[in-house]
């Protein structure tokens, strides 16, 4: 598993984009959820066979990214990521990524479950 510290920290959150899940119709369930930071965009995708998270980090070359407005996440825009956790479950699968904004208390989580990505905000 890659070390993402130098790629993610410290950066401000510029916005969020997502593709709604075709597999799971529940609220906050996505085929892809992207966290747009100052210099990179982090794409979180489900690995269907294992329900793990695939992470793709790409440079923000396009300044015309269309952000999604969502009341659950708008409060995080402009804030800096303080720290994050890459979580591996008891069976050895990487299926949870947790972010902390402004403190060490977890702020929102990205979970791979049921062949989709779920976002849980506190």
Q: What would you note in describing this structure?
A:
The chain is mainly beta and 122 residues long. The protein is built from one helix and eight strands. Strands 1, 2, 3, 4, 5, 6, 7 and 8 form an eight-stranded antiparallel β-sheet that branches. A hairpin with a 4-residue loop joins strand 3 and strand 4. The protein is globular. The mean pLDDT is 83.
In terms of per-residue confidence, which ranges show pLDDT below 50 for 5 or more consecutive residues? none
Structural class from helices and strands?
A: mainly beta
How much β-strand is present in the residues?
over 45%
Helix fraction, binned, reads: under 10%
The number of distinct β-strands equals 8
Shape: globular
Radius of gyration, in Å, reads 14 Å
> Count the helices. How many?
1
Distance between the termini: 27 Å
The major sheet is characterized as: 8 strands, antiparallel
Order of helices and strands: HEEEEEEEE
Average pLDDT number: 83
Would you kindly provide a brief summary of this structure?
The chain is mainly beta and 122 residues long. It is built from one helix and eight strands; from the N terminus they run αββββββββ. The longest helix is centred in the N-terminal third of the chain and has 4 residues, at 5-8.
